[in-house]
Amino acid sequence: MSGVFEQVYALVRQIPPGKVATYGQLAHLIGRPRGARLVGYAMSACPSSAGVPCHRVVNRFGGTTAAFDTFGPGTQRALLEAEGVAFTPEGCVDLSLHLWQPLF
DNA sequence: GCAGTGACCGTGA
DNA sequence: CTCACGGCCACTG
């Protein structure tokens, strides 16, 4: 609470299935236009106990995080595809179709 | 208690 | 157009 991480987790938790958000976008939403790194670190913490779908967070290119290879190659991609997220031949998420836009 | 690092982004030259 | 650097917060050693 009262921490940047909690702010990030709160937003990520609001991301509906089939949608993805970028680090920079989340950083802006928490009031840290230049704090994209904080979002990345917050994801690294990725407390499953907090119910944070960190697999729905990708970089600005829509590329999945290599850190997910911890569970196996292409783990994050598999999770997103299971939710109906379309991927480009380059292996990136089609942000034009699945970029999460906070209504309010 | 101090310093360095980290799943990144944006701007300047 | 491309290359390079700074900046933000929290956690670890």
UniProtKB/TrEMBL annotation:
The keyword Transferase applies. Residues 5-85 form the Methylated-DNA-[protein]-cysteine S-methyltransferase DNA binding domain. Keywords: DNA damage, DNA repair, Methyltransferase, Transferase. It comes from the Bacteria. It catalyses: a 4-O-methyl-thymidine in DNA + L-cysteinyl-[protein] = a thymidine in DNA + S-methyl-L-cysteinyl-[protein]; a 6-O-methyl-2'-deoxyguanosine in DNA + L-cysteinyl-[protein] = S-methyl-L-cysteinyl-[protein] + a 2'-deoxyguanosine in DNA. GO terms for molecular function: methylated-DNA-[protein]-cysteine S-methyltransferase activity. One of its GO terms (biological process) is methylation. Pfam families: DNA_binding_1. This is MGMT family protein.
